[in-house]
Amino acid sequence: MTKQEKVDFVIDTLNDIYPEIPIPLDHKDPYTLLIAVLLSAQSTDVKVNEITPLLFEVADNPYKMVKLSVEEIREIIKPVGLSPMKSKGIHGLSKILIEKYNGRVPEDMEALEELPAVGHKTASVVVSQAFNIPAFPVDTHIHRLMYRWNLSNGKNVNQTEKDAKRLFPKELWNKLHLQIIWYGRQYSPARGWDLDKDVITKTIGRKSVINEYLKKKKK
């Protein structure tokens, strides 16, 4: 298979499995999405979706959020981990949104990345899911699968993002990055991986990855 044929195979297979894509993090607007994505760093979406209703019941916009102290925010979000940094970030970015953007979340990647505790991946998720601007946020699942599928060298997430953007059509980025995340969770996880269920890797996977898998299975 040529690289283009592999890319087409990935797109077709993911469209067959996920014609409709559920959004992983519960939210109702750009602000609640921004907070949910920020909280999801080094945590699970399931855990974040348990905590955000408790936080948003008290403060679901920047004006209400700044009325809470950093300690009060931290107390609510503690179960998601990294709460000292995240609570400061949430309070700080809410203040900036009020002062600079009339309480609205900017649609611009650079403006988002300037906010406290907001990195490139968080900004990418917000522009793609809240504003439908093409972006390709790379999480651990996408990074792992792009390497397994021999579509990126696995060097770092920046390289994976560059390769994904180069290989996949821009109009598919927003849908595709979510499809790959769901596929990674369900069929190609880091642990407990069953190659027989992972049709994409089985068909186009990197030979060294498949050989390593088979070697471990024999032991």
TrEMBL record:
Keywords annotated in UniProt: 4Fe-4S, DNA damage, DNA repair, DNA-binding, Endonuclease, Glycosidase, Hydrolase, Iron, Iron-sulfur, Lyase, Metal-binding, Nuclease
GO terms classed as biological process: base-excision repair, AP site formation
Organism: Christiangramia oceanisediminis
Descriptive protein name: Endonuclease III
Co-factor requirement: [4Fe-4S] cluster
Annotated function: DNA repair enzyme that has both DNA N-glycosylase activity and AP-lyase activity. The DNA N-glycosylase activity releases various damaged pyrimidines from DNA by cleaving the N-glycosidic bond, leaving an AP (apurinic/apyrimidinic) site. The AP-lyase activity cleaves the phosphodiester bond 3' to the AP site by a beta-elimination, leaving a 3'-terminal unsaturated sugar and a product with a terminal 5'-phosphate.
Cofactor note: Binds 1 [4Fe-4S] cluster.
Single GO MF annotation: DNA binding
UniProt entry tagged with the keyword Nucleus: no
Top-level taxon of the source organism: Bacteria
Matches recorded under InterPro entries: DNA_glycosylase, HhH-GPD_domain, HhH_base_excis_C, Nth
Family from the record: Belongs to the Nth/MutY family.
Stored SMART domains: ENDO3c
Catalytic activity: 2'-deoxyribonucleotide-(2'-deoxyribose 5'-phosphate)-2'-deoxyribonucleotide-DNA = a 3'-end 2'-deoxyribonucleotide-(2,3-dehydro-2,3-deoxyribose 5'-phosphate)-DNA + a 5'-end 5'-phospho-2'-deoxyribonucleoside-DNA + H(+)
Enzyme nomenclature, EC number: 4.2.99.18
Presence of keyword tRNA processing: no
Enzyme category, top tier: lyase
Domain HhH-GPD: 39-186
